[in-house]
Design a protein that fits this description.
single chain, about 210 residues, mainly beta, Porin, eight-stranded antiparallel barrel, three-stranded antiparallel β-sheet, 1 helix
């Protein structure tokens, strides 16, 4: 099922393409840029189960500061790295009708190869899509069980992206983007493997972009 946030980005991208004007400076090969904003990390609604299916997991949303650094090696193609401050998620572990609280921090650097259909033109509205790889490092895991030690393994997975720049002038633009990140982590409790948790979030960021 298509996620409503992703659908909104796609609609905005298509609408932006139709409304593109020709008043901005050319946008394409050789551009180095950064995008800065606030990101909302929304894990999938089904985060899987642990302990042989007896413990259901629910990973909550979080907001935080995020930024990207990118380079356009062709008018229509570029690469971009997503980085952020650590995101902290509350996690509910539901077993036997009771909920055990936990929390965890993660960093999800993500590298994507991007395609800009209007690259090389002077259009003020510049949509793009991307496909790449995500690495996620988990830290500061904590669980509300006295003496218990919770640990989440690092994760590697694919990533998809869609976004749009709304150019203000030669250097500045408004930006809106969404990523889907394939994040699955093996979970250990007191050194014992108890299963895998599926985070699989949508990351939605709104902010500004600056071209050097």
């Amino acid at each position: 099922m298509r996620h409503p946030l992703l659908s909104s980005i796609i609609v905005a991208t298509l609408a932006g393409s139709a409304l593109a004007s020709t008043q901005a400076m050319a946008y394409g090969e050789g551009d180095i840029y950064t995008r800065v904003g606030i990101a909302k990390v929304s894990p999938d609604s089904d985060n899987g189960s642990l302990m042989g299916g007896t413990m259901e997991t629910d990973v909550h949303d979080d907001n935080g500061f995020a930024f990207t650094l990118g380079y356009r090696f062709h008018d229509k193609f570029g690469v971009e790295l997503l980085a952020a401050e650590p995101f902290e998620h509350d996690v509910d572990l539901n077993v036997g009708g009771q909920s055990i609280g936990a929390d965890v921090e993660h960093l999800p650097p993500t590298l994507t190869l991007q395609y800009y259909p209007l690259g090389g033109t002077q259009a003020r509205v510049q949509p793009y899509v991307g496909l790449g790889v995500n690495y996620t490092h988990f830290s500061d895991e904590d669980i509300d069980l006295a003496g218990a030690d919770l640990d989440l393994d690092e994760s590697w997975g694919w990533a998809g992206q869609a976004g749009v720049d709304l150019l203000i002038d030669e250097h500045w633009a408004f930006n809106m983007a969404v990523w889907y990140l394939d994040i699955d982590s093996d979970v250990d409790l007191n050194g014992e493997d108890i299963g895998e948790i599926d985070v699989d979030p949508y990351v939605v960021m709104g902010g500004i972009s600056y071209r050097f």
